[in-house]
Structure formats: structure tokens, C-alpha cells
Design a protein that fits this description.
By secondary structure, the chain is α/β, with parallel strands linked by helices. It has one domain: 2,3-Dihydroxybiphenyl 1,2-Dioxygenase, domain 1 (Roll), CATH 3.10.180. The protein has 3 helices and 8 strands. A 4-stranded mixed beta sheet has the order 1-4-3-2, covered by helices on one side. It has a 4-stranded mixed beta sheet with strand order 5-8-7-6, with helices on one face. The relative contact order is 0.19.
Length: about 140
């Protein structure tokens, strides 16, 4: 057993190219609260506060990241309302494969970063819902 213990994910960083479009999506569509980046940063970055001190960091670069299955997930208490929220704003929704006891879908930010929106209907139980063996 390791002497280190991880308690939660502190933050996730994604690449953006258009500051205004990213801010509009993360504030205007996702409804996140922007907080000032550290004053020691000498590069363009947007920080958004979640609960429990977790943050999402947007780092401006000249080119967007390549599209891939890579993503971060935002948990919601009502995924049905979340779907309606995105549909009402014209944000395309990508449905995905099932996971036992949860409902989820994906959206993409203006730079193509993949964001999973997920609601756990019951806590994940690896004994009941997990694969027979580890990959």
C-alpha cells in the first residue's frame, strides 16, 4: 500500500483558442463562476470554480487540441433538466453507451473539448456493476 492518499480531483485543464467564445460557453451556457487566475501567471488562462474547491482551467493556445475520447465530466443532480438546458440553447448533445445506474451524455465547447454531463442514479458499485476482470 502506498503512503499517499488522493482525496479528489483538484482541477482539470483544457486548451482553448478563442477567449470570448470560451467565456460565453463556460459562463453563459454551463453557468460556471469565473474566478481570477493566480496573479503569478504570466499567460492567458480562465479559471472556473466548482464545489469543494475544484476548478476548471482554460489555457489559451494558438491551436485547439485534437478531438478524441478524452474528456472531463460534470455531475448534475438532474440530467433530464440538463439535456433540456442544452437543447434550449442549441447545443448539440451526443448520447453515449450506458453505465449501470447512471444517465449521461456529451457536449462540446467551442474548441471541441468533450464534456460529459452525468447523473448517478445510484452510487457506482463495482461488485454489482463492474466488469468480471480488470483490463
Amino acid at each position: 500500500m502506498s503512503g499517499i492518499r488522493f482525496t479528489h480531483i483538484d482541477h482539470c485543464s483544457v486548451i482553448i483558442t478563442d477567449l470570448a467564445a470560451a467565456r460565453e460557453f463556460y459562463v453563459g451556457v454551463l453557468g460556471l463562476t469565473e474566478v481570477p487566475k493566480p496573479k503569478t501567471f504570466d499567460f492567458v488562462a480562465l479559471w472556473f470554480q466548482l464545489e469543494d474547491g475544484q476548478t476548471i482551467h482554460l489555457l489559451q493556445k494558438p491551436q485547439a487540441d485534437s478531438r478524441s475520447p478524452r474528456h472531463f465530466a460534470l455531475r448534475v443532480p438532474d440530467v433530464v433538466a440538463a439535456r433540456e438546458h442544452f437543447r434550449a440553447r442549441g447545443v448539440p448533445i451526443q448520447e453515449t453507451g450506458p453505465i449501470p445506474h447512471c444517465d449521461r451524455f456529451f457536449v462540446f465547447d467551442p474548441d471541441g473539448n468533450r464534456i460529459e454531463i452525468i447523473q448517478w442514479l445510484e452510487p457506482y458499485d463495482p461488485a454489482a456493476s463492474g466488469a468480471a476482470k480488470l483490463d
